Structures
1.
Amino acid sequence: MAMTRLQMNWIAVKHGSTDITHVNSVQVSKGGSLESYSADGDQYPTVILHAMSKPRVSVTSGDIANLQGFAEGTVGTFVATHKDAKLQTGGDLIYTVVNAVVENVEGSGTHAQIGSGTMTMLAYSADGTTSPISIARA
């Protein structure tokens, strides 16, 4: 059966050498932002360009203690596999984010509900021009 081109559930999530389990969600953002320009009598932008990207990653897990173990400023490679919805070969997406710096970890819980934690990371480019985010199929 061919891959579905749909993803569901996460496996093999880690930052550096530390596995992250009980993963509820992962968000990988390329962090693009646009700059617009107008002048004189312009009432609309006459130029819009991509000036900077600030890649960002967040992972939410039910294992709050594991996430709380990451210190702010820790740099590592973040990897996460988003599975093919029908588990077909070649349908998984593997995100690799190099130079992922832990920004913050938050834990929360509501009465009579299972709690969760969220770790946010920013990523930087080693040379200023190459994206720290790569995506592969497997």
2.
Amino acid sequence: MQLTQTDIATAFESLLPELERRLNLNARRYTDAAEAFQEMLASSWVNFQQKAKHGSLLNACALAWIARIRLQAGRVLCGYSAADALAEKTVRSGRSRVLSLSQMTTTKPRWKLAPGEIRRITLALSSCEHARPLDRAAVRLDWAALAERLDRRLRVILEGLAVGESKSSLAKILKVTCGRISQLLAVLKREIVSFFGENLPDSCW
């Protein structure tokens, strides 16, 4: 007997507690666990419906396994494009790299950024998103000009602060004490005030 849509929905709902537990475990390996979970849950529902219409009811273990394999392969419900830099398959193939602010502010060594990446992010963060393009460009040029006049240690501190580095992590990078970092921060503040004068850009604070 062919199952009705109500029968299929009822059968799927009975699997939800175990399915959600399995999907939550699988989602932990992803940077955005909540998004990965929702994608796999939606994929499980679509897969369950398709199989049920042909008389086969998949269990929670099979649904979770298939959903994980689909997500790893980049086969998401919204479609996949090789030109999508955020697609899981694009990232896994090494064609793009996605960094989130939460990753940049963590203290875990594996998220340490290369100096070039820090400089690019510094430029991106050193302006107000609501400012006019010309104003944003001017602020970025100002920050770049300031960085050029700083010595290496102050430049490292300035760029590190822009990506959320703590005083302790900056101390390790520069191989100095936290007390010395506090002294250098005071010097950096004087340099900023001296450079911008009274018209400090909002991004200073």
